[in-house]
Automatic annotation (TrEMBL):
Protein name, entry field: Helix-turn-helix domain-containing protein
GO function terms (MF aspect): DNA binding
SUPFAM superfamilies, per the entry: lambda repressor-like DNA-binding domains
Biased composition (Basic and acidic residues): 1-15
Location of region: Disordered: 1-20
Species in which this protein is naturally found: Nocardiopsis alba
Length: 181
């Protein structure tokens, strides 16, 4: 029998929460699988890691717990992980700890209204003055920073430098035109 009753907002939100929690759990499991692979490549057993008991390693590798940043770094050092292995581990670690609101946005595939509102400001625009430029830079940074990996944040910073140059060039051009009159 097909149930055609409308889905309430609460039940939809509960489903989104469940999907978001599932995404977080999957990320913890993926992190665990990745760390286990790195440990095996290093030829270490869970018992031979100094300062970390085997049950903790087991819980991390099965995705039941997410290690602290310090413990993750210690494990990666013990495994002598290469740069690519470290980046993947940190990316998975970030995904496994995303705040619920960010995970909801990922599950729903939506972007908040303020992020959409920031789009027109991304191109070269004329701003009233230095304080407006500072406000715009802060706004764009907040709008684009949330939920991004360290590699993506670095790319955003590089991109932001280019936009800042465009904004400053537009300000300079506007001042030059105004003073020429």
């Amino acid at each position: 029998m097909n149930d055609d009753r409308p889905v309430s907002a609460k039940s939809k939100e509960a489903q989104v929460d469940q999907d978001a929690d599932s995404l977080c759990t999957e990320s913890k499991k993926a992190l665990g699988v990745h760390l286990k692979r790195l440990r095996k490549v290093a030829g270490l057993s869970g018992y031979r890691l100094s300062g970390v008991d085997q049950s903790t390693v087991s819980r991390i590798e099965t995705g039941r717990i997410r290690p602290s940043h310090e413990l993750l770094t210690r494990l990666l050092d013990a495994y002598e992980a290469d740069q690519e292995g470290r980046e993947q581990a940190y990316l998975l670690w970030d995904q496994a700890q995303l705040p619920l609101q960010t995970r909801r946005r990922q599950v729903e595939g939506t972007r908040p209204a303020w992020d959409q509102a920031a789009r027109p400001a991304c191109g070269p625009t004329l701003l009233a003055g230095a304080s407006a430029a500072e406000d715009a830079a802060r706004y764009l940074t907040r709008a684009q920073w949330a939920g991004n990996s360290p590699a993506r944040r670095s790319a955003l910073l590089d991109d932001a430098e280019g936009r800042l140059v465009q904004v400053l060039a537009a300000l300079h051009a506007a001042r030059t035109r105004t003073s020429a009159r």
